[in-house]
Amino acid sequence: MFGIGKKKPVMTTKQEVIDAMTTGLESSELKYKFDQEKSLFTTSFMGDDLPIGVNILIDDVAAHFILFLDLKAAPENYKTVAWDLNCLNKKLVFGSFYLDPEDGMITLEYGFPYLEARVSPDFLISFVGLLVRTVDEHDGDLKQLAENTVKDTMYG
Question: Could you tell me if 11 and 115 are in contact, meaning their C-beta atoms sit under 8 angstroms apart?
């Protein structure tokens, strides 16, 4: 049932993914930092309008891509921003936008489970590119969401 027992799955290790990501970043001549202790890559890209920060966390089963713009939503606008992000997420193929209620940052996040997948440097870098393009496509809308505040019409 569901292919279980028919074929032994490919088991990709965390170190293989780290090595592939390192190779991909270096072959693309991208500047990056790697925190060995956290298994965390950090890099950035310049979008059409705003810089896009990228964190890639490799754990034992998945590569977690977290992309962010230098935008913070005002606390009084969290409810509206969260609702609008939900509407935007329905249109996305990969990843979802989130609002962090602790600091108001808006991020695009996607977790890729690699355990039974063959990942290559080209695949990982292509995936980073896809996610960066997604953020870049929506950066204007995200900036507007973050900067808009709910007006108090009672005193308005």
Answer: yes
